[in-house]
């Protein structure tokens, strides 16, 4: 009996130790949207034969310059195991000698998890976005990407054109690649549904080997003006009760009067027939 208890306690101690030393599988990504940059870390741990997301885990974000780490901020993971932090003003970030940024996501001193770091190196870039519309309403969208430090071209980067919508971008092209000059040109032959002024928000998603995902958007006058539907304020079938169409008020009432009139007419004549037999 004592031997069984001893084995049970040993198993519990091993289980507790394993839980305290769970390994975090950490990944780190970078995204920039209209000069606002974000870092997203995803944390998972192995449970049995599969990996599961870790919820509520605190992640520290650093920038690294010549081996020195500078804290940018921290964030907790959500139910998807992701923690996102805005870098803020990217113009204050320093490059290294190669013109790159270095970021680190770190799990430090968390109960039940081993310390772990994940690093990513990013080449900051800038995007020139020009739209030219011909007389026959064909739009030429020219994209030029340059490295921020030396103005060198970003070649062989994935580039894709989209129009911004409420819930998600609507892609207007397949994935293309920039040329040796860091350029690519898209062509749009049909105007797009726009706002009241005929404006649409066109965007570019560019991603290279070390640039991260970079989004750039601009409003251009290449849309079909939106015409608001004012029929809701008019008398129609889908309007409120006080806007019921007049014919819908008149005809049903005429039918009802016709039915009751017929019944009254029949009853009256039945009464006359019964009187005549007396």
Secondary structure layout plus pairing:
Layout lengths: L1 H19 L3 E10 L2 E12 L2 E4 L4 E8 L2 E9 L5 E7 L12 E7 L8 E7 L2 E9 L5 E9 L10 E6 L6 E2 L4 E2 L5 E6 L3 E2 L6 E9 L3 E9 L2 E2 L21 H31 L2
CATH architecture of the largest domain: Sandwich
Low-confidence spans: none
**With helices defined by DSSP (H or I, 4 residues minimum), what is the helix count?**
2
* Number of separate domains: 2
**Radius of gyration, in angstroms, nearest whole number:** 34 Å
Please state the overall shape, judged from the principal axes of the Cα atoms. Answer: elongated
Q: What's a concise summary of this model?
A:
With 278 residues, the chain is an alpha+beta fold. The protein is built from 2 helices and 18 strands.
Written overview of the protein:
- The strands form four sheets. Strands 1, 2, 3, 6, 11, 12, 13, 16 and 17 form a nine-stranded mixed sheet that branches. This protein has a four-stranded antiparallel sheet with strand order 5-4-7-8, with no helix packed on it. Strands 9-10-14 form a three-stranded antiparallel sheet, with no helix packed on it.
- The mean pLDDT is 85.
- It contains two helices and 18 strands.
- The termini are far apart.
- The longest helix is centred in the C-terminal third of the chain and has 31 residues, at 246-276.
- A hairpin with a 5-residue loop joins strand 9 and strand 10 (139-147).
- The chain has two domains: 23-122, Sandwich (Immunoglobulin-like), CATH 2.60.40; 125-224, Immunoglobulin-like, CATH 2.60.40.1940.
- The protein is α+β, with helices and mostly antiparallel strands and 278 residues long.
- 18% of the residues are buried.
């Amino acid at each position: 009996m004592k031997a069984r208890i001893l084995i049970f306690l040993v198993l519990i101690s091993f289980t507790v130790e394993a839980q305290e030393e769970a390994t975090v599988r950490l990944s780190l990504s970078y995204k920039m949207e209209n000069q606002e940059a974000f870092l997203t870390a995803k944390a998972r741990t192995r449970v049995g034969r599969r990996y599961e997301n870790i919820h509520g885990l605190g992640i520290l974000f650093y920038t690294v310059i010549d081996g020195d780490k500078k804290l940018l901020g921290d964030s907790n993971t959500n139910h998807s195991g992701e923690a996102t932090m805005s870098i803020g003003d990217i113009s204050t970030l320093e490059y290294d000698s190669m013109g790159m940024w270095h970021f680190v996501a770190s799990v430090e001193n968390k109960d039940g998890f081993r310390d772990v770091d994940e690093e990513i190196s990013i080449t900051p870039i800038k995007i020139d976005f020009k739209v030219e519309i011909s007389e026959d309403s064909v739009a030429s969208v020219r994209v030029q990407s340059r490295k921020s430090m030396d103005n060198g071209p970003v070649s062989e980067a994935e580039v894709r054109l989209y129009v911004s919508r409420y819930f998600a971008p609507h892609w207007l092209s397949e994935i293309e690649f920039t040329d040796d000059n860091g350029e690519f040109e898209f062509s749009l032959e049909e105007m797009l549904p726009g706002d009241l002024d005929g404006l649409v928000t066109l965007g570019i998603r560019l991603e290279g080997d070390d640039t991260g995902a970079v989004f750039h958007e601009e409003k251009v006058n290449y849309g079909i003006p939106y015409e608001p539907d004012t029929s809701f304020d008019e008398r129609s079938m889908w309007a409120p009760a006080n806007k019921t169409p007049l014919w819908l008020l008149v005809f049903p009432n005429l039918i009802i009067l016709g039915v009751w009139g017929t019944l009254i007419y029949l009853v009256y004549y039945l009464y006359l027939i019964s009187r005549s037999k007396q």
